[in-house]
Records
---
Amino acid sequence: MKHKAGYVNIIGNPNVGKSTLMNALVGERLSIITSKAQTTRHRILGIVNGDDFQILFSDTPGIIKPAYELQNSMMDFVKSAFDDADVLIYMVEVGEKELKDEAFFEKIRNSKIPVLLLINKIDTSTQDLVQEKFECWQNKVPNAEVFLVSALEKFNIEPLFEKIISLLPYSPPFYPKDQLTDKPERFFVNETIREKILIQYKKEIPYSVEVVTEEFEESDTIIKIRSIIMVERDSQKGIIIGYKGTAIKWVGIEARKDLEKFLGKKIHLELYVKVNKNWRSDKQQLKRFGYME
Ligand SMILES: Nc1nc2c(ncn2[C@@H]2O[C@H](COP(=O)(O)OP(=O)(O)OP(=O)(O)O)[C@@H](O)[C@H]2O)c(=O)[nH]1
Ligand SMILES: [Mg+2]
């Protein structure tokens, strides 16, 4: 029996459902999901293993025109996903027109490797519109095979999965067969807290936040976690804490519930807020937080 393995990298505009798709394919909640754009900031690996295959899915940040250093790093993650892909998944949603970046779009159209173009969120649309979009995208990206899916409802995911397997190159596995991702547990702690922050706070606040877990101590019965919520300016600190601490309390409770499910243990979670002036424009800080080499 010959073994297949390869990178299947998911790219597209913000908020189209890339993370929802990866989680559906992997069957775990690896990437955080919210209704806000730029939820994903990293390239996140999700590994699916079979007896004779290993698929390395990469979820990536939504494609944008970068306005500050953090967003430059986010787009570097997208670039890296073009470089090592064996199969590219280009995801759009029914209502959408163009990719936000012309150069990336040309890379997809001229791709030498197979491109699967997914029109997502078809659960929100009509049959007529979906049909129209199907033809429109097939014309725009003739080298792609188009799939109509709903990542949320897990509709048409099975045929997509079969197609991916058929396209994988023959190769031994890249990672041990029991490994699910390349990121450490602390990363998922940070991301879970950031997800709750994206849900709880408005406007610029979530985009000014970085989460760092300073303590992660596991015993037989409990994991003790201490995490710092970093904001860019003094004025944002009070907003994060909220009136009588209610806002940050909600974040802590919701993150703890999710993490108990994800890590399968009781969790004690302490949150602190600190100001780290203009961290998202500071290369030194971005390196420290794992956005740059
Ligand atoms: N109705 C519907 N909603 C979906 C579907 N897939 C994703 N969503 C919703 O779309 C929103 C964005 O989903 P994400 O998976 O976070 O999107 P993303 O492309 O990873 O977004 P970024 O990380 O910000 O680039 C969330 O509110 C999802 O619940 C779908 O098939 N149908
Ligand atoms: Mg995402």
---
Amino acid sequence: MQSFPAVDPIPLPAPIWLLKLLHIVTLSLHFVAVEMLLGGLLLAVLLSLFRSSPASLVTARAIARRLTVVMTYVINLGVPPLLFAQVLYGRALYTSSVLIGAYWISIIAILTLTYWLLYQFTARLESGRSAWWVGLSAWVLAGFIARLLSTNMTLMLRPEVWRQMYSSSAAGVYLPTGDPTLTPRWLLMLAGGFFIGGLWLVYLAGRSTFTADEKKFIAGLGGKVAVLFGVVYLAAGLWAVSVQPQAVKDGLASHPLYRFAGFAGYGWLALVILAVLIAAIAGFGKVAANGLAWAGALAALLIEITFTVYRDGVRDLTLLNKGFDVWNRTVVTNWSVVGLFLVLFVGGLGVIGWLISVVARAQKPMEGAAL
Ligand code: HEM
């Protein structure tokens, strides 16, 4: 029986390697923003709940203010990989999206509510009102969106359950069950949130808008959180790989790129260990945080890139074992369109970089000034 819908007769308009490269670049950036949101938000909630010192409230407000901006990156950096994923894996991804259609479409409403709650959280913190329960609600919703995304990205790899799910309901009201890879994968993203969130604090501690005492507090807290959750993140990563089918594990271990990106070639593994060491120096050492800020940020970016490459390998190898070869497509490249796209893409990245540099250079009041 044919597991996957028939391939679209219209050829792909760009080389597959280029579509995959753009997919991985944009998705890695989406993941950096997602992890900052998931980890940063809960850290800000906890800091505002247990106001152990004036610095904890200053830190909570500093994170919250930035989270509304981070959310724009989560969304805008989520759209391109969604488009690339649909071009490359449409036969699998459209099917799974339709099968959980009611939940899939509800992401738009949940996302809107989460965004509104984020603004409420920030406003309440700024005005000194109780805010933790608003922030916590936003975090629960964001975690649920993450769960739905993990659900769809794993359901697209299981053509064997599609027919039975569709027979149960064509309205997309059921979520799939019985996939051992789903929960470890979701928890890996949540653990990564605290890890990257901790590294983000180490980075923030290098900003000149904090007093020396605040910097010390933020670097110490961020470093300790990143050390603890770096270890949890490593364990979750090992768990997520261990539940993959043997054929996928063998494929990951023997493919040169995935070997390098993941465990066997120590790409992701080495970077996580390096980032934990950076965090340990920031969290427990006496070294000023400024020098560590950029090292932690760079490590976080490289961790997400290697993670995304490896994750891509899990998908391609799983699908290949079920008869779907992502490389097996007719390509008729339209170079003028590809060229125009790349010019706009690079130009767009340049404009974002320029915007960030303008914001970074702008004169800002001290973070705790209004308290
Ligand atoms: C609060 C908002 C969001 C959160 C917390 C979030 C979280 C996540 C997580 C955890 C994953 C990984 C799932 C997995 O593979 O296990 C993911 C993947 C993804 N997200 Fe987001 N996301 C959010 C918003 C969005 C938005 C608004 C879009 C698009 C418009 C988007 C597009 C994607 C895509 C396309 C993937 C997977 C791509 C692929 O596998 O090829 N996300 N997201």
